[in-house]
Structure formats: C-alpha cells, structure tokens
Design a protein that fits this description.
mainly alpha; Farnesyl Diphosphate Synthase; 299 residues
Length: 299
C-alpha cells in the first residue's frame, strides 16, 4: 500500500511529456532550410503553398522530432548524468515509451512524406536513416563528433534545402548552384552541432562519447567550430559575386562579419557562452542562408 510520501509512477506519458521529448525548439533549423530550398527553386508559390507548409511540418515536427526522440532514448544513460530532469531519465516517460514514440514518429513521417512525391519520400528515408544511425547502435555516429556532427549538419540543412527545391520543381533535380549552397551550409552546420555539445561534456566523457569538446578540449573545439561556420560563408560570398549577385553577396558578408564579432566573445568562455551564441550567432547564420536562396531566385 502506498503512503502519502510515495506516488505511483505513471504507466504512460502525458501529452506534455511527449511534446517535451520531441523538443519543438529544435524544429526551426530544418524547417528554415526547407523554406530556403523552396525559395531557391525559383518556382512561384501560387497554388503551391500547401507544399511549403506540408514540407515544413515534415522537416520539423516529424523528421526532426523523430531524431530527438531517437536520440533521447539511446542517450538516456548519458542524460541521467547531464540532464536528469529530461523526460526519460526523470521517469516521466516510463518504461520503453521513449522508444515507442521514436518508432511511431518514424512511421508517421514516412506516411506523410508520400504526399510530397518521390523526392519527398526518398529524402525522408535518408533523413530518418541518418537520425537512427546518429544515435542508435551499431553505428551510433555520435560516438565520434566528426562523423556525428557531419550527419546532423547534412540532415538538418542540406537535405532539407535539397528537398524543398526538388518538391517545388515537381521532382526535377535542383540546380547545381542550389545543391552547392546546400552543401556549404551543411558543412557550416557542423560547427553549430559542435557548440551544442558543450552542454554535455561531463556525461560524454564518462560514457565514451567522443564529441569534439571531449576530443579537442573546450578552447580548441570552439575555434574549430568557428572556422567551420565561417569558411563556408566566405565561399558563398565568393560564389554569389561570381554568379553576378553582388548585392546578395554583400548581405551574406554583412551577417558573416557580425558573426565574427560575436565569435570573438564566444572564444573567451566557450562553455559558458555557447548557449548565448546559439541564440545570436546562429540567427545570423540562417539569415545568410535565406539571403543566398533569394539570390538564386533572382536568376
């Protein structure tokens, strides 16, 4: 018999706990990248708004949310050290419900992707495969920060951008210019993923996750992240100039300069200021993505 000092653990999670597991705050980057791809396609939105909206839902609340659920399930032991109040280690997501949500959201994502045609379905399959490979054994790409962050950057930015363009083009292959920009911004997202790893250094060290902050130390990892974010944008500026879009190149250069100013402050205290930079510098980074997408639309 339970006393007043004990509360029976829940047999299933609340909707609020499920929403917390799916982490809505993380949905923005792939949704934004999909929108960038839509803009870069140059296709009119007239009569196609539903493609934009459905694609953004697929990129964020479905595929990205699935990746969060998968990651939290297979990281539950790490989170018990780093963030014990998360849904699974706290017990608010009881039993294997974290895994059930991950599987259910995977199937739902595949079902919805059928409405976006062949490219939408194929891109969803690739994105989900990367999400599971990142977190789940036997691959568990996140065990090495170089590979894991590359998978995340490609999935969050490049794949979403490519899909947005391909869907708007009716399944046709996006231009090489669009694919090039998508890959460059994916490369830069590797640095963004590295900054996200600063919050979990202790747990990563104790559980064998070799994130870049663990491998290189906080200072060196922060410098590598900054270079990886900045260099692709330098290339974007150069490409936009060579493609005859100096005004758009100037816009990307302006947001890059602003990022460099913020990076100088970040490097003074990477562990303490990484969350601050994620809320400021990353906003500038994704602004440059949209500027470059509009440059392609202007062709």
């Amino acid at each position: 018999m339970l006393t007043s000092n004990h509360v029976a653990p829940p047999s299933y999670p609340s909707l609020r706990t499920v929403a917390e597991l799916l982490k809505p705050i993380t949905w923005f980057p792939p949704m934004w990248a999909f929108a960038c791809g839509v803009v870069a396609s140059g296709v009119s939105f007239e009569g196609r708004w539903w493609l934009l909206l459905l694609g953004m839902v697929l990129a964020g609340p479905l595929v990205c949310a699935t990746s969060q659920a998968v990651n939290d399930w297979f990281d539950r032991h790490v989170d018990a050290i780093n963030e014990p109040l998360r849904p699974i280690p706290s017990g608010r997501m009881p039993g294997a419900w974290g895994l059930y949500v991950a599987i259910g959201w995977t199937l739902l994502s595949l079902l919805v992707s059928l409405a976006l045609g062949v490219w939408g379905f194929v891109a969803t399959v690739v994105g989900l495969a990367l999400a599971w490979a990142y977190s789940a054994p036997p691959l568990r790409l996140k065990l090495n920060g170089w590979w894991g962050n590359a998978a995340c950057g490609l999935c969050y930015e490049g794949l979403a951008w490519f899909t947005g363009s391909a869907v708007m083009l009716g399944g046709a292959m996006p231009s090489m210019a669009s694919i090039t920009l998508a890959l460059l911004y994916s490369f830069g997202a590797h640095g963004i993923m590295t900054l996200n790893d600063f919050k979990s250094i202790e747990g990563d060290q104790r559980t064998g996750v070799r994130s870049l902050p663990v491998q290189l130390g906080a200072g060196r990892a922060a410098r590598v992240a900054c270079w990886m974010m900045a260099l692709p944008q330098v290339v974007v500026v150069a490409l936009l100039v060579s493609w005859g879009h100096p005004a758009y190149a100037l816009g990307v250069a302006a947001v890059l300069i602003a990022q460099i100013v913020l990076m100088r402050r970040l490097l003074r205290d990477p562990r303490g200021l990484a969350p601050w930079y994620n809320g400021t510098g990353i906003t500038l980074y994704v602004s440059g993505m949209m500027i470059s997408a509009f440059a392609l639309r202007a062709v």
